[in-house]
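Hi Q.,

Before the meeting this afternoon, I wanted you to have the flavin-adenine dinucleotide prediction in hand. No need to reply - just skim if you have a minute. The sequence and ligand are here:
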Amino acid sequence: MDNPTPRPIVERMAHDADILIVGGGLNGPCLALACAQAGLSSIVIDALAQDTRMGGQFDGRSYALALASVRMLDALGLWDGLSDHAQPILQIKASDGRAGEGAAPFFLHFDSAELEEGPMGHMLEDRHLRRTLLAAMDDHPRITHRPGMSVVAQATDGAARVTLADGSDLTGRILVGADGRRSGTAARAGIKRTGWNYGQTALVAAIAHDRPHHGIAHQFFMPPGPLAILPLTGNRSSIVWSERHDDAKRLMAADDAAFLDHLRPRFGDFLGDITLAGQRHSYPLGLSVANAFVATRLALVGDAAHGVHPIAGQGLNLGLRDVAALAEVLADATRRGEDIAASDVLARYQSWRRFDTAALALATDGVNRLFSNDNPGLRAIRDIGMGVVSAIPALRRGFMRHAAGLTGDLPRLLQGRAL
Ligand SMILES: Cc1cc2nc3c(=O)[nH]c(=O)nc-3n(C[C@H](O)[C@H](O)[C@H](O)COP(=O)(O)OP(=O)(O)OC[C@H]3O[C@@H](n4cnc5c(N)ncnc54)[C@H](O)[C@@H]3O)c2cc1C
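Predicted structure with the ligand bound:
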């Protein structure tokens, strides 16, 4: 009779949890919830207090969630509690614009009616998503949440170990960095980053308007950067307005009335009169991609692995792809009796995610460079390119399927299936 395969030593050691997740923003909690489906326990540590993250004005962002991301939230049992707050994106219209001139005629128009799967995605405000994730973590017996606590040191030899700011230690089988684009987890592991600053800051706010938006998302390409007007529930839209750093600083310092006076000529009057429906927030924009997504007993997900330009509204969608892929790799390894932190297991995750990430980082970078300027030659090239995409239905549908996250080698959760 064959001897049973001995379980790796680290699996036999007692740990505080299977997975230590640094960062309880959006991707960290999603990973903990996904891995819990596979029977894996997690501790999620976040530097910010729970009350701060639960606050209604905490972040101000709203996310264009691709259809595949919505399917994943559904597979995690979260979508029923979120769907009332979500606005389907029925159409996307893009046009060239200059401040004061209003938008030029649309040169790109995507209509979900052409897609058999339905809306390409949904707009969801950060406050709803974040509260739902925090509540779901608190309710789950396999997840321990440690809010208001920073990780200050780590080690991954033999087991994963983090030291918290209060001097206490936690151990796990694997350490995951979900700690954002300035990931300390990556830095402490010696993982370098590639990236640059775009010289742009995104101004973000919810806007109330007189007329209905009919579920249409608009993108106006202005020389300093794009202005996206994205439909929220009711007669409200979220703006992501990119300006040069100095101009953005002045706009943030201005009072609400002056801010709106600058916004109106760019926004146009197609939605009637506009007012602010929440606080203004600003985000400096840059590209920051980790040179490796894995190291010994360690993996990176979300912005810790890749922070991209929000021009295509894909950053969180990309992070959820990491989460779905890593959770599936770890679940399958568990079923096969492998050490979830073995280097070949982590290599599977990295090879699944690297190409997709590099492609999207380059695409968003290229689109931002092509559109955020007033060069007549580049304007002509982009107008021709967009005209070609608009004129060819198969190409148009291809773009929509891509934006909906339906292309590529999709992990089970992104197909709406359980792990
Ligand atoms: C203006 C703008 C608009 C966007 N719009 C979209 C969109 O429409 N669609 C889309 O898909 N994406 C969008 N994105 C991208 C999206 O916001 C990010 O990809 C996403 O928020 C990243 O989440 P995360 O959980 O990976 O990281 P984060 O949200 O950055 O969370 C990291 C967490 O780690 C914690 N942390 C850091 N260090 C430590 C430590 N040492 N110890 C403990 N905790 C720590 C932090 O407190 C934080 O809570 C947009 C981004 C911007 C800037």
